[in-house]
Amino acid sequence: RKHPSTVKKGCCNLMYLTEEESNGSTMALIRRLLSLARPLSSSPLIVGWADFRGDTGQREFSSYVAEARKRLIEDSSPDWIVLVQGILDSQPSHYALIKILLHTKAGTRARLEAVTSRRATSRRTLPAQRIRQGAVDLETEETRELLQSLEQLGAVAIENIPSTISRGYPCSIAALRNDPPLELRGSCDLLGTAEADAEKPTAILIRRVMAIAERASSSPMIQGWREYAGDTNVWRSVAPFKLLSSENGRGQVLDADWTITLTLYSVPHGGKKYVRVDLRETEPPLGGMISTNQPFECDPEVPRPRSERTKRDLHVNEARSLLKRLQKLEPCALITIPSTVVDGAPCTVTVLRRSKPSRQTAECNLMGLRDGRPGTETSGLILELLRLANAEAQ
Questions:
Q1: Are 258 and 279 in contact (CB under 8 A)?
Q2: Predicted local distance difference test score (pLDDT) of residue 303
Q3: Is residue 235 a contact partner of residue 262, using CB atoms and an 8 Å limit?
Q4: What is the dihedral of CA 89, 90, 91, 92, to 10 degrees?
């Protein structure tokens, strides 16, 4: 202001607003200015500003837990509040937030609310945020089963289940009870939960909430969750040292001496590749491989990830060449190679050995490799695995 001279500053993030902040004076002024600017510009940053407004489920999970904690002490509050927040690590703008309000007094009833946000990409326009909201009343049987699961949590606490991969579909969960007071929090990765952890209370409860939410939201973040956590999901950790070869094993499950896994991501757009090879030190050597490719989809309306999976036996020469490389590996020979690029093709390779129990893991970015740098064993192994995977695709 010129007369009298005054300067007032304020800021907000349109995608991280609480309900209280959305109605504040700062947001009121920003909203008015953006509305006035809409006729002057065709840019999605201004025309589509309303798509970013309000709560998109992308705030820190602890802030949602704090809000639920306050709601439990209000009049006519629910007896249970269950929160689940999921994010696709390979596409950090894809979020899902699910909230269940469960009442047990004056009749058992429950309601589920879901909000998802995902960045829609187009070759002709700038990215725009797509937000979907939905709500549904739980059926009687669903409510009874969920309540039974929650009442058992007093003795079996929810925990943080470690992930077997670096980028997946991590989900956080919180269960809060009014009387007697109880608050439990945990997490697991739908994409990277090991078989041994899949039946733990944390994983079971998250899957149950996701299954109920399918009726409330048409978003791929919820409708496609089974693609990440289903029984046929090859991204989940499978038991090492079980030979994947079907032909050479004549249908029998044989013990493998080596298990090698490779996970590669295409950043920032998305798309990933997973390769696993099992080897048996026999003469001739036996080997089997599975490869899963999830290509980047430029169409924002693709309902769920599209996976291409192949499985085959290694040829004798392929198995012998790879086995020779592995036998030459010294302890700690696989080292992480510092990346010279921000995005690119980051990948992680892991080598497990059974006869002399050992595990080596290393990372590198294929787009940032330079000749003469340390880590030739790491990059050489990764490139050989990719060559094997590409050979079966041709």
A1: yes
A2: 45
A3: no
A4: 30
